[in-house]
Specification:
Two copies of one chain form a homodimer. A four-stranded antiparallel β-sheet of chain A has the order 1-8-3-6. In chain A, strands 2-7-4-5 form a four-stranded antiparallel β-sheet. The first copy, chain A, has two domains: 121 residues, Jelly Rolls; 79 residues, Orthogonal Bundle (Arc Repressor Mutant, subunit A). In chain A, strand 4 and strand 5 form a beta hairpin. The first copy, chain A, is α+β, with helices and mostly antiparallel strands. In chain A, 42% of the residues lie in helices and 21% in strands. Chain A starts with a helix and ends in a 13-residue tail after the last helix. In chain A, 35% of the residues are buried. The longest helix of chain A is centred in the middle third of the chain and has 27 residues. At the A-B interface, helix 2, helix 3 and helix 5 of A face helix 2, helix 3 and helix 5 of B. Chain A binds a DNA duplex through helix 6.
Amino acid sequence: MGLAAEDVERLDSIIKRSRPLHRGDHLFRGGERFRSLYVVKTGSVKTYAPSEEGGEQVLGFHLPGEIIGLDAIDKSCHACSAKVLETSAICEVPFQRFEELATSIPSLQHQMYRLLSKEIGQDADMLLLLGKKNAEERLAAFLSSMSSRLSKRGLSPTDFYLSMSRHEIGSYLGLAVETVSRLFTRFQEDGLLRVDRKHVEVLNLPALEMMAGSAPSSTHKQRSN
Amino acid sequence: MGLAAEDVERLDSIIKRSRPLHRGDHLFRGGERFRSLYVVKTGSVKTYAPSEEGGEQVLGFHLPGEIIGLDAIDKSCHACSAKVLETSAICEVPFQRFEELATSIPSLQHQMYRLLSKEIGQDADMLLLLGKKNAEERLAAFLSSMSSRLSKRGLSPTDFYLSMSRHEIGSYLGLAVETVSRLFTRFQEDGLLRVDRKHVEVLNLPALEMMAGSAPSSTHKQRSN
DNA sequence: ATTGACGCTTGATGCATGTCAACTTGAGTT
DNA sequence: AACTCAAGTTGACATGCATCAAGCGTCAAT
């Protein structure tokens, strides 16, 4: 991404590779001091805000190639927790060293700005989703997003396993588990998907994307505020 | 904020100050090329995503001291539009120059990371709000936020004018105008506020903050997913 | 194989909030 | 003043989705 080979090497040298982590392991917990960013190599991770009395709000799912912890730079302290959803390989990037390195490599610094900015843009998309879209559009958007993110990594955009539970999907999308379950059933009935537990086959990706693109399916429009 | 006087001067020298802008003026529109960040000096600005057929989703309100345009760094192109809500003084910071400057001032670079990170953290708060909170909690959170942001700038935390319409508040909070209106009325009946058009007096700030802090008021709890 | 726990699905019901409609108010214009 | 128009308020009604409840498949441990 526009870095000299020598710089890539320098960057590589500060990255820590840990042994594979397993389902349920934490990368960090809310309240801990922020030291490193984490990059998913393989597997998947969820970030969530533990709320009082056991409830939790899922803030995001992180697939290979994606970065975790950007929100903690500001306060030098993690506001959320990150938990591994399946056996995963994660790289740790000590932030202070990274920052020193970025100072001497302008193009790295620029990439970092872009990365942070991209995250902000994605959050804005999510805001729009939660603010304006109905249940059906939300799940369609979620599946479209999974599809495109996986295909970016060379995986099938139409055949994949969801490492998160229905409950976690619901929390992420601001829906009840039951609603998510019903929608999976409906999407299958409508010939959009074939679903078996965590295994999803997308049969009609364009239709899903259309649905996600804020075009209510029923003739009845709601939340047009 | 940890910058040498000399560096502050250098930063100052790249900032453009424009004549005051007026209600309805645009800082930029979605699709335009990204060149500068904007800092609100006085007044207020809203950012919004124009959707097809005239509808718009309000993405944020920006008060004095706050920065606009961070989401556009990634694609070098604005994804949303920014419109001035009242007569305002706005500073323009050409981003390319800023970036060059940051390269030679490590502490400025660090501040920039913090700024971007902070934005991400705030978006996460908003995600939580839209995903989990009911109408009452949302408006309480909105008012608490306005209160604290204004007081940071030395303005009254309990007596202020809202420069945005009820419709815009509704769009921002994912609620219908009517719901917002009813809530203002209810808050007033409950002795939390005194409201007259755009003028708001907060009579019981702690109660508002309590309400916003994801504690459902009615005994009936909902959206505990 | 049995048990238990958990995640998922499905149906029935209720409520919060969206939608529709009518009215009021305030601000600007003539 | 009288008029106009947008913004806000309020009431009546409709509905999408949460909630409650029950049942079922799956998996791990015994």
